[in-house]
Design goal:
The structure is a single chain. A hairpin with a 2-residue loop joins strand 7 and strand 8. The protein is globular. 42% of the residues lie in helices and 15% in strands. By secondary structure, it is of the alpha/beta class. The N and C termini lie far apart (48 Å). The protein has an eight-stranded mixed beta sheet, with helices on both faces.
């Protein structure tokens, strides 16, 4: 285990696009970055970056696999006994067209939900692993604020007809961030936030699309993305926040307003109804007698 001189960060999807730009920025800020990606060029990309005393390392990772992510986090923790920042950034576009015409004379095939596995489920996996190692480090006397930022999308708050699975996954990340951030900050000193980029030059874009959108003046610079990450890295008070990143602007988005007092009562759990109900269900589950209805 190395001396914990430099904070340790995990960045998924680190071999290109937003992940690579963020990796370079974190190295500049003094982080030891573990670059996680499926790219076969990962090692050479990592070795091409500044070879400082806290030079980045590459860890071949399939984020849709719990075991692969578990190995990634175990490796990162072994470096210094701390994982200080986690960027859940890996993502893919839809792998199946939900509007596709198919034969009505054959049984429909099970849909390909790989996009949900990568863009949403893997973030739940990463969150659990990050919390585990944050709590472990705190138990071992390394108490500090640790931070997670998920890469959602502007399509996490708007419809996106061409990629509805991607859209649904990104909506899910917004819900996850807002639902977990405040509680983890209060109880575990872990902040959970999300960035929602507009169109940024990444490998997700179809060939020729980047130049076409740039020509129309709608390409968001990578520098604005870095500004969004810095907003969360530099402010320990932010948790459960979602920031829309567009052109040279950051817009912190809040949940929609409740339409009436009844909805506010239910949503804010003012009567403690949800908390008491689900604590009761958890207690029954621990006794092996809980059944969902």
């Amino acid at each position: 285990m190395e001396s914990p001189t430099h904070p340790v960060a995990i960045v998924t999807g680190a071999a290109s696009g937003i992940g690579l730009a963020l990796t370079k920025h974190l190295i500049f800020k003094g982080y030891k970055v573990v670059m996680a990606d499926l790219s076969p060029s990962g090692d050479s990309i990592a070795s091409s970056l500044p070879q400082t005393p806290h030079a980045p390392t590459f860890f071949h990772t399939n984020v849709s696999s719990w075991g692969s992510q578990a190995d990634l986090f175990a490796h990162a923790y072994s470096l210094t006994g701390s994982i200080d920042f986690f960027a859940a950034n890996a993502g893919i576009a839809d792998r199946e067209d939900v509007f596709e015409q198919f034969s009505l004379d054959e049984e429909p095939k099970k849909p390909d939900l790989t996009t949900l596995d990568v863009d949403l489920v893997s973030v739940f996996h990463g969150l659990k692993l990050f919390v585990h190692y944050a709590r472990k480090a705190r138990r071992e006397g390394r108490a500090r604020t640790r931070k997670m930022v998920a890469t959602a999308s502007m399509m996490g708050i708007y419809p996106f007809e061409t990629n509805p699975q991607y859209c649904a996954a990104k909506h899910g990340l917004i819900g996850l961030t807002r639902s977990t951030g405040p509680k983890f900050a209060k109880e575990d000193n872990i902040t959970i936030n999300a960035v929602m980029p507009a169109f940024v030059a990444t490998g997700l874009a179809p060939t020729g699309m980047i130049k076409a959108i740039e020509a129309q003046g709608h390409l968001t610079p990578m520098a604005t993305m870095i500004k969004a990450y810095d907003a969360f890295l530099e402010d320990d008070s932010l948790s459960g926040e979602t920031v829309e990143v567009t052109l040279d602007e950051l817009h912190f988005r809040k949940p929609v307003e409740y339409p009436n007092a009844s909805q506010r009562w239910l949503g804010d759990d003012e009567g403690g109804f949800w908390k008491s109900a689900y604590e009761w269900k958890r207690a029954k589950k621990e006794k092996g007698s809980c059944e969902d209805e």
